[in-house]
Amino acid sequence: GAVVSQHPSWVICKSGTSVKIECRSLDFQATTMFWYRQFPKQSLMLMATSNEGSKATYEQGVEKDKFLINHASLTLSTLTVTSAHPEDSSFYICSAPEGGESNQPQHFGDGTRLSIL
Amino acid sequence: GNSVTQMEGPVTLSEEAFLTINCTYTATGYPSLFWYVQYPGEGLQLLLKATKADDKGSNKGFEATYRKETTSFHLEKGSVQVSDSAVYFCASTGGGNKLTFGTGTQLKVEL
Fold it and tell me: Distances from the Cα of B30 to the Cαs of A11, A21, B68, in angstroms?
């Protein structure tokens, strides 16, 4: 079945560094991908919609300059957390719908656990 | 806008017990409804879906029926196993594939 690969699965880095997370659709093309953030024991919060060939659409309250999104191709979207600080520590998950219709399920990556020291 | 409300956890059951996790939604139009499952340290996996009223989604012994009259999509399983221990998320779609999630319900199944 369709698979979404997310890399890396775990990152630990110092405060002030930038971290890039990749999300790839392995056997299908995705013109749209979604980035979520999940705090411990909480639900997923949609951060932004990544659009191939155009700018990402950010949800209210999400800093676009802090969380840079690039949808470089039909199979790859990246999220870069710039100048990361401890409060950015979280579990980040991407997803991609296999088809263009809203009744199609989304395929999720396994998530990236980001820890900022 | 869309919203999804699901019962709070954690839910603790003995193996072979009956499971119900309630989920209700509000939406404009006719959303598609999903249940996703998240095992510890992993991303989400689709468990089942329903795309129109009275549809029943089913998978791995789990079932949920799209009830338009009560705006509900309750998840049920007749006999749970220890391996079913996970967090379960109810979700609906609005326009453009954007998912709205419930808060998640943690299920713990004990021997």
Answer: 40, 34, 9
